[in-house]
Write a structure and sequence with these properties.
- This protein has a 32-stranded mixed beta sheet that branches.
- The protein has three domains: 17-237, no CATH class; 331-350 and 359-608, no CATH class; 619-653.
- With 658 residues, the protein is an alpha+beta fold.
Length: 658
C-alpha cells in the first residue's frame, strides 16, 4: 500500500514537472500554434517573436510578431500579437485542436493586392491549395474571434487603407450563423477621403467557401455629411471574388434607397445592379431651394470608385414623370453627363401672395445666383428635354436645354415653343463675364401682361453682356442691343388720350385723339432697344408704330419691381397709319412720364409732365398763329401783288411768321 502511494505521488510529481516545463517554456509550442493558424490554407506561418502565457482571465498563449507568407515567399501579413485560448490537454499530448475558446489579433498589417489579371496576391494556385488540404485535420471551431487596430492595405487601380479598430464575432462554425460587430475606417489614399463604418449583423461560413450575411447593419460616416445607414443581406463568393447583394436598404437624411446586384472585387471594385430611391424633401437633402420637393426613381446602376452610371432611369419629380441616363466619373475633375426627358413638368408652387418690397428698401433676398457656380469645379454636360414645361405663368413645349461647363467656361443653349412661337437662347461665360444671345419668332405677347397693354406677334433678337454671377450684377452691368418688330397687335393709348384731354382743355379745342379706343390696333411696330451699363438707367427705346414715333429713356429696378421712364410721342403728318391726328398736333413732341410698379397698368403708370405740357400748348398756339399769319399773307399777296411777282414776294416774306 505504501509503495502504491509512493508510485502515485511520484507520477504526479513527474506530470507536474512536465507541465511546469511547458509553462516555463511556451516557445516549445511554436510549431503547434503555427499549425493551428495555417490549418487548411496554402500559406506559411512563422512566429518570429516569443510565446508567452497569459494566466488570467483564462489561461491563453500570446504569440508576437507573426509573419504570413504566400507560396512565392511574398509576405502577406504581419501581426504584432496573436492570442489564443485553447484547452491545454490536447496541446500537452500533441493532438489536433478542435476547439479554440478565443482567438485575438492585435496590431499589424495585411496587404491585399489585385493584379492586372484580376487575381489577388491571396489567391493560391489550385494545386498548392489541394496539396495543403488533402491530409489536413478538420478546421477547429473558434468560439470567439477578435481583431483590434489592424491595418489593411488594398491596392488596385486605386489604393485604399482600411483600419480595423475593433472586430468581434461569436462562435465560428461552418454552416452555422455567428454574430459580428466591427468598427473600421476606410481611407482613399489618392483623393484624401475617408469614411468611418460601424457595423453589426449575422454571418454564415458555408462548407463551399461562401459567406452569407443577413441583417448586416452599418452606419457610415463621411465628414461633413450626415451618416448613412445600410441594412444588407447577400452572399460572398470567395473564389469568384464577388458579392451577391440580394437587398441593401440605405437611409440618408430624407433619402431612402434600395439596391440589388453584384459587387465584383477581382479587380477594381465594381457594382452592377438596380437601384430605387425616394425622398420627400429634395431641398433639405441637397441644401438648396429647387421648385420641387418629392423625388423617386428606379434605374440600372453601375458603380466603381471612379464612376457611377444610372441607366434606364424612370422617375418622378412631384408626380412629374421623367426618363433618361446620368453618369459621373472622377479623374482630376468630377465629370457629370446626362440626358433626361420629361413628359410634363410643372414647377409652379402654390404660395401665399408676398407683400411688395418697399420702393426705398430693396429686397436683397431676391439677389439670386444667375450663374450656377456650384457647377464650376466640375465637368458638366446635361441635356434636358420637356414635352411640356409649366412654370409660373409660362407654358413651354418641345423644350430643350443643353448645359456644358468646366472650371473655365459655361455654355447653355436652349430652345422652346413658347406663346405660340419659338424662342432660342444661348449663353457663354468664363464665370466672370457673360454673353447672352436671344432670338424670338412670332411670340404672342398678349399673355405677357395682365391687362394686355400691348399685344401682337413679336419677332426679334438681342445680344447682351454682363459681368458677375448674381442678379444684382446683371442689374448694374448689363449692356446690349436688341431689335424687334410686333405685327397685328394693339397698344394701350389711354395715357396719350389723357394727355390729349389736358391739352384740349388748355387750348379750348377737342382733338380726334380723345375718340380713339383705349387699345388702338396697328399692323406693324418696329423698335430698337439699348442697355447702357445696367437696367437702372440709361436705357433707350426707339419705336415706330405706323405713323406714331415713340422714344423712351430711363430704366427699371429688378428688386423693387419698379420702373421710371420719360417717353416722348410724335405723330407724323398725313393720313397713312392708324394714329392720324390733325396737322396742328402732328410733328410735336408729346411728353409722358411712366413711373411705378411693374404690375400697374399704363393708365396708372404714365401721365403728362406739367411743364412739358405747358410748353407743348405754347408751341401749338405759336403754330396756330403762324398758320393763320401765313394764310392771311398768302391772301394779301394773291390780291395785291401781280401774278409774276407772287413767288418772289413769298420767298422774301416766308420767315415773317416763324
Amino acid at each position: 500500500m505504501v509503495r502504491l502511494l509512493q508510485f502515485l505521488f511520484g507520477s504526479l510529481l513527474a506530470m507536474s514537472a512536465l507541465l511546469f516545463f511547458l509553462l516555463e517554456n511556451p516557445n516549445e509550442l511554436k510549431s503547434e500554434i503555427a499549425e493551428i493558424v495555417s490549418l487548411s490554407t496554402p500559406y506559411e506561418v512563422e512566429i518570429k517573436g516569443d510565446l508567452d502565457w497569459r494566466y488570467w482571465p483564462p489561461i491563453a498563449i500570446q504569440a508576437n510578431d507573426i509573419i504570413l507568407t504566400a507560396p512565392d515567399d511574398l509576405v502577406l501579413a504581419n501581426i504584432e500579437q496573436l492570442e489564443i485560448d485553447v484547452d491545454l490537454a490536447p496541446l500537452l499530448i500533441r493532438q489536433p485542436i478542435l476547439d479554440i475558446n478565443s482567438l485575438t489579433l492585435r496590431g499589424g498589417w495585411i496587404n491585399y493586392q489585385v493584379k492586372p489579371s484580376g487575381d489577388s496576391n491571396w489567391l493560391a494556385r489550385a494545386g498548392e491549395s489541394e496539396n495543403r488540404t488533402t491530409d489536413s485535420p478538420p478546421a477547429p471551431t473558434i468560439h470567439e474571434f477578435r481583431v483590434n487596430d489592424l491595418l489593411i492595405n488594398y491596392q488596385a487601380k486605386q489604393n485604399y487603407q482600411v483600419t480595423i479598430n475593433h472586430l468581434q464575432t461569436s462562435k465560428l462554425m461552418t454552416d452555422s450563423p455567428f454574430d459580428i460587430s466591427a468598427n473600421l475606417i476606410i481611407k482613399d489614399l489618392e483623393n484624401n477621403g475617408s469614411l468611418q463604418i460601424a457595423t453589426t449583423g449575422q454571418l454564415i461560413f458555408t462548407s463551399n467557401d461562401r459567406l452569407r450575411f443577413d441583417r448586416l447593419v452599418a452606419d457610415i460616416s463621411l465628414d461633413p455629411y450626415l451618416p448613412v445607414s445600410l441594412n444588407t443581406n447577400g452572399e460572398l463568393h470567395i473564389e469568384r471574388q464577388v458579392i451577391l447583394v440580394n437587398k441593401a436598404a440605405i437611409t440618408y437624411d430624407t433619402l431612402i434607397a434600395s439596391l440589388t446586384g453584384i459587387i465584383n472585387f477581382s479587380g477594381e471594385p465594381r457594382f452592377d445592379g438596380e437601384i430605387s430611391l425616394q425622398t420627400a424633401n429634395v431641398n433639405q437633402l441637397l441644401d438648396t431651394n429647387l421648385p420641387f420637393s418629392a423625388l423617386q426613381l428606379s434605374a440600372g446602376l453601375a458603380a466603381s470608385p471612379r464612376s457611377i452610371k444610372l441607366s434606364t432611369i424612370e422617375g418622378e419629380l412631384d408626380q412629374n414623370q421623367f426618363k433618361g441616363t446620368i453618369e459621373t466619373t472622377t479623374n482630376k475633375l468630377l465629370k457629370i453627363e446626362g440626358d433626361l426627358r420629361f413628359d410634363n413638368l410643372n414647377l409652379t408652387k402654390q404660395s401665399p401672395a408676398k407683400k411688395r418690397p418697399s420702393i426705398s428698401t430693396p429686397n436683397t433676398n431676391l439677389d439670386s445666383e444667375i450663374l450656377p457656380k456650384t457647377l464650376k469645379p466640375y465637368q458638366f454636360n446635361l441635356i434636358t428635354r420637356f414635352n411640356r414645361f409649366h412654370y409660373a405663368d409660362f407654358d413651354l413645349s418641345a423644350a430643350k436645354i443643353d448645359i456644358t461647363s468646366n472650371p473655365d467656361k459655361l455654355e447653355v443653349i436652349a430652345n422652346t415653343r413658347l406663346l405660340n412661337g419659338k424662342l432660342v437662347a444661348s449663353m457663354s461665360s468664363d464665370w466672370s463675364k457673360t454673353n447672352l444671345v436671344i432670338s424670338a419668332d412670332r411670340l404672342d405677347i398678349s399673355a405677357m401682361t395682365n391687362d394686355q397693354s400691348i399685344t401682337g406677334r413679336l419677332t426679334g433678337s438681342g445680344v447682351y453682356d454682363f459681368s458677375g454671377d448674381r442678379l444684382s450684377d446683371l442689374e448694374n452691368t448689363l449692356t446690349g442691343r436688341s431689335t424687334f418688330s410686333i405685327s397685328e397687335g394693339s397698344i394701350d393709348v389711354r395715357p396719350i388720350k389723357e394727355l390729349a384731354r389736358t391739352i384740349d382743355s388748355l387750348r379750348g379745342k377737342t382733338s380726334r385723339i380723345t375718340n380713339w379706343p383705349d387699345k388702338q390696333p396697328f399692323k406693324n411696330m418696329s423698335a430698337q432697344h439699348l442697355f447702357q451699363g445696367g437696367t437702372l438707367k440709361g436705357q433707350i427705346l426707339n419705336a415706330n408704330i405706323e405713323n406714331l414715333r415713340l422714344t423712351a429713356a430711363g430704366g427699371f429696378n429688378i428688386f423693387q419691381e419698379s420702373l421710371d421712364y420719360e417717353i416722348t410721342a410724335m405723330f407724323e403728318r398725313g393720313t397713312n397709319g392708324t394714329f392720324t391726328v390733325s396737322d396742328q398736333l402732328a410733328g410735336i413732341r408729346w411728353p409722358l412720364k411712366c413711373q411705378g410698379n411693374f404690375d400697374e397698368s399704363p393708365a396708372d403708370l404714365c401721365f403728362g409732365q406739367n411743364g412739358a405740357i405747358e410748353e407743348l400748348v405754347a408751341n401749338l398756339v405759336r403754330q396756330e398763329l403762324k398758320r393763320k399769319g401765313n394764310k392771311k399773307l398768302d391772301q394779301l399777296i394773291e390780291e395785291k401783288v401781280p401774278e409774276g411777282l407772287q413767288d418772289l414776294t413769298r420767298d422774301l416774306l416766308k420767315d415773317l411768321f416763324r
